[in-house]
C-alpha cells in the first residue's frame, strides 16, 4: 500500500503520524512524508528576466524562500523519523515542496499515485470543529484517491497501542461507493478483536429512491437496508473483523457523527461516491461537514484512478 502523509510539524500533524499505527496498514507499505513550504521560489529564469532595479527584492525573496525550504526539510526529516518508529517493515521516505499546501499534496498524489493520503484536521474543541482546515477540505474534495483525516479520537481511547483492537464505524447507503468502502476496510490488516459497526442511516428522502432503483419498485426499504448491512457484515467477518449491523432512521448529517461518538469509535469509513446524502456531505457544497462534525478520524474511500 502506498501512503502519502502530509506533515507540517503541528499538533495535528503529530496526530496524523500517530494515527498511522492504527490505520490497518500492511507490512511493507510505502509511506512518503511530504512537507510543503508555502512560499514562491523564484527560478533562475525569473531572476534573469528581472530588471536590474528589482533584483534586490527578488534575491531577498529567494533567500527567504530557501530558509523556508530548509525549515520544511527539517520538519520532513523529523516526520519521516517518527513514522519509522511505528513499523520497521514500512518503506519510509520524505519530500519537500514549495507551493500552496493543498494543491501541492494533490499534484504530488497525481504523480506518485498513492492509495491513501493522510492529513491532519483542525483541533477537537467545538469551536475548531466548526470548519475543517482549508488544506484538509481541499484534499478531500479534489484528491483522486482515498483520504484519511486524522483526529486523536475519544479521550477514553487515547494512547492505545498499535496492537489494541480498533473500533470502526462503516457508514453505508447501498451504493457502489459503499461497496468500495467495505472492500477497503476488509483488505486492511487490523488487530485481533477489532470491531466494526455497520451503520445504515435510513433517510427516506434519499435512500428510498436508491434502493428502489437497485431492486425495483415496491421494495421494502427497511428490509433491504437490513439485508445490505448484514451482507457487509458477512464480508467483514470473513476478513476476521467482529462486525454488527445497525439500521436507524434519521438525518445522516447528524446521526453518523452522533452514533460514532456514542460508540466511542476510533475511525469512520465512508465511500466517496455514495448516492445518498453521504456523497453530498463529503463532496458537495458542504464537503467538510462530516469531517468537521466527526469526533474521530474519518477515511473517505475512493478507488485510485
From TrEMBL:
Signal sequence range: none
Pfam (any one): Usp
Domain UspA, residue spans: 2-150, 167-302
Source organism superkingdom: Bacteria
Coiled coil: none
Stated family: Belongs to the universal stress protein A family.
Protein name: Universal stress protein
Organism in which the protein naturally occurs: Humisphaera borealis
